[in-house]
Design a protein that fits this description.
Radius of gyration: 40 Å
Helix content: 25-40%
Oligomer: single chain
Strand content: 15-25%
Order of helices and strands: HEHEHEHEEEHEHEEEEHEEEHEH
CATH architecture of the largest domain: 3-Layer(aba) Sandwich
CATH topology of the largest domain: D-Maltodextrin-Binding Protein, domain 2
Number of helices: 9
Strand order of the largest sheet: 2-1-3-14-4-15
CATH superfamily of the largest domain: Periplasmic binding protein-like II
Shape: elongated
Amino acid sequence: MRKNRMLLILSILVMAAMVLGACATPTEAPTEAPAPPEPTKAPEPTEVPPPPPELGTEEHPIQVLFVPSVDIDFMIAGGELIAQALHDATGMYFEVSIPTSYAATIEAMCASPEDTIGFIPAMGYALANQLCGVEPALASERYGWNVYWTQFVVARDSDYETLADLEGATWAYPDAGSTSGYLYPLAIFDDLGITIGETVAAGGHPQAVKAVYNGEADVGTNYFSPPLLPEGRWTTDMSPDIPDELVSECGLNEDGKLYCGGYRVLDARSSIREEAPDVIQKVRILDISSEIPNDTMSYSPEFPMDLREIITAAVIEYVASDACAETLCNENFYDWTAAGPIFDENFDGIRILMEAQGITLENIGE
């Protein structure tokens, strides 16, 4: 009996041990050591951008700007020929454009200071030099003259006899950035105490002549270049206009030039000779101003000096060539016949007039 009881107790103890063993939390496997971190990769080298294309290459052509003073269509066509001629002479590439105004030309030169050439008049140069340091290289020459003048043109049958008679007159000028068409007339009107009536910004020298020709303005101001005489040379003590007795003979010759007898007309009236061959019969010169420095070829301030020397020499050679007669040296363009050096101090007189009139790039034309 006692033996049986002992066996029962042992059996119960064995079963209890088995149950407790089954319920015990299993021992966790030992934690593995963390993997060593991967070695840090060196950063990829930053790509260095390629250098900009060299100035004068096809990818970075030199910008050539002309003020829109005469026949725009002719200038555009001529500009392409000039670019090609300069490329042939220098091996460099050029891109020609004609901004919408004198002021826009100046602003474009200053906005692109390292690669721009501008063909700009005296006041345009003075403004560009003041704005961003544009520098002059060449000044034009026309038929032996390195200066030109403002001319005041009126209808031939008008009653105007002197500039003083223009009180209250309607004035047509080419552009507020024009030296001969705007700055000088403005200063002269001021000096004489003349109060002009309405003003018309005609858009160019030919258009200022046309405004008088069409009766849209009483007086127009534009450039005066002396006529070529049958004999000798025009001098400043002579009348700027052709003799009255030759007016009826004025018209185009077989080459399309404007002649009055033996006199060849070269002032702004000749710029509309093809559409108005009777312009001399309809429009006369009332008076002219004092001398004005001729227009310039100028460089933007950071234009490389070594390239300036090459291009300046090429332009002088081009102006002396027969090819120039189809472009820059043509009456429908700027009518250059030669070019020579000019310096900043040559424009001090222009600066004095601008200061007297309070003219800056910001208020020009106001």
